[in-house]
Amino acid sequence: MSEVLNLTNNRNLKIISELGNYSVYEHQSDLSVTPDVAMPVYFAQKMNIKRRQLLIELNDSSVTVQSGAMQWSLGNLQSGTGIKGVGDVFKKVVASKVTNESAIKPVYSGTGMLMLEPTYKHILLMDVGEWGAIVLQDGLFLACDSDIQMKVTARNTLSSAALGKEGLFNLTLQGEGIAALESPIPQEELIEIKLVNDVLKIDGSMAIAWSQNLQFTVERSSKTLIGSAVNGEGLVNVYRGTGRVLMSPTVYN
After folding, report:
1. What share of the chain is helix, strand, coil (3-state, %, to 5)?
2. Model pLDDT, residue 104
3. In the chain, at which end, N or C, are there fewer CB atoms within 10 A of the end residue's CB?
């Protein structure tokens, strides 16, 4: 049986998150720097700017990953496209144009290990089944179990996209399984709000993911134009109903 040495027992690699067969490795230091960049790299690491990688261990299972994300694989793994015909290709291309996601996401199946490319972003592991269906901001998708359905969700209203400074369409994950997101915000800073027949109003583009069944609109912070002008808030993003919202503490983009 093959072995992978200097990975799980590497002092410079730390597993910072695990869920199911997904493990997030974080490089504690960049040991390959040259003298001319050593100082900025040192202070970057002090500010938690570190390389992170996702390792997925497959056991007669399959995973869908972002295009170009694979770094190396080990074992009896086959790579495919998940395309079901010409019509499916067209649908995926159209979806990629409106969500800023890659049109074709490779599917790896079999038994073995799959390591994804390093990223300076933060890798979030989520149980999609706990959300039912989760809507993602553009560019967050990294990988997910292939049993999870991926589709495009349109905004409830045109104003919610134009006035809320959001896109008209978003990638939605639905089903049972695990998903990995590539987030600009670390898990430690994210705020999760569980709404129970309630209303959440956010002043700015701070929600990175939310339950699909929530109604999203953009409204004035006050019932009147004069009131909105007086309180200085203007327009706010509003989420109504029962579900979850994953929110950054600041406007991240």
Report:
1. 15, 45, 35
2. 81
3. N
